[in-house]
Amino acid sequence: MLIEFSVGNYRSFKEPVTFSMVAANLDSKNPQIDEDNSFSVGNNLKLLKSAAIYGANASGKSNLVKALGFMKWFIINSSKETQSTEKIKVEPFRLSTETKTQPSLFELVFVMDGTKYRYGFEVTQHRVISEWLYYVPNVKETKLFIRDSDQIEQSKKYQSNNLKQFTRSNALYLSVCSQFNVDLAEKILNWLSRTLNIVSGLNDTEDISYTLRCLEDNNLNDEIKQLIKSLDFGITGINIRERDFLPEFNFLPNDIKEQLKSFIEEDNMKGVKMVSVGTEHQVFDEYGNLKFTEEFNLNHHESEGTQKLFALAGRLIMALKESQVLMIDEFDARLHPLISLGIVELFNSKDNNPNNAQLIFITHDTHLLSHKIFRRDQIWFTEKNRYGATDLYSLAEYKVPNDAAFESDYIKGRYGAIPYLGDLSYLINSNG
């Protein structure tokens, strides 16, 4: 379960940008929403099941997603997929003379196996500046290890068999420990791999493949199909078919054939399969009687919205079943507002989300800005300040009634985080 994520130039005068899934202590006029949309972890921690992030274009929303994606990738791969001479793929904030030379900070607070952890690091493009891991065994936070440049200090609880000598300056100690089978490090990397999922919302290729793999599991097949049929009423069934790739290869343009041959020999294509997805639709006669079903090809005949729904279906079902954290950029792109609402309601439901999965999404869909859907602490905004830096803040920071007209007030600019348009009338006048 995700608690908090922070990113920023830590050693500057600016505080890191922090996103939190910790439920605030709100005086609510809708206790049912409060109860459905949050859950307790132990006696002292209450978390949210979902959160929406709003803001103008270029306000930093997607950068938050990219930062978390980089952090996940770097933790998992820095010790095994990078070389000692490679630069770390971070970029400092370039609109300040002070932060331009400062390291970038990333920190994650999460719950794994019922225990709270806080892990983070500071990096430049050339090296890891610092790294730390803490946990809360009872009440007080306790150090597991601290790294300052090449110096690493660790507690007896963190048994790593002195792996400092194997830790490159551009690799994380936690990642190295996982490579050498340190139990806690392996568990944390496994948690990141299996529990924290980040989806672009625009590029469906990888997510469609994920849904197809999920459909091979009989325990997930029916649930994924039911989800798609429930959210897209025109579809009555889904068929998955495999066929040999080699006959299809012969009909490809020559330039594409040559590109494929550079990756795979033609003899090896005999074992390659192509997967096609068919969607069933009912066909009626002129009297409204059902006659038969017609199969459409998902890629060729269905709308982009239906294709995106299919792409997300596997991620959504797995998140709900496995208590995962799902973060989606451009959530509302190509989806009807009612489908977006249906997905949000799945996560904000005790019946459909008994394992307390968490959904975090970037959106411009203001129809979701309602006290009948969200608590105030589930609504977040990004806005660039006068210096070009992103501010991230929650609606819970505003002194507004819990039953206020969130959507209307947001459009009016009461909470900020909206685009400011210049005078466009001259465009019309100049062509008059």
Automatic annotation (TrEMBL):
Q: Does the keyword ATP-binding apply?
A: yes
- Could you confirm whether the keyword Nucleotide-binding appears in this record? yes
Say which domain of life the source belongs to: Bacteria
Task: Please name the GO terms that the record assigns under molecular function.
Answer: ATP binding
Q: Where is the ATPase AAA-type core domain?
A: 51-370
UniProt cross-references to Pfam families, sorted A to Z: AAA_21
The protein's UniProt keywords, in alphabetical order, are: ATP-binding, Nucleotide-binding
**Where along the sequence do coiled-coil regions lie?**
none
Q: Which InterPro entries match?
A: ATPase_AAA_core (IPR003959), P-loop_NTPase (IPR027417)
> Which residue spans traverse the membrane?
none
What's this protein's name? ATP-binding protein
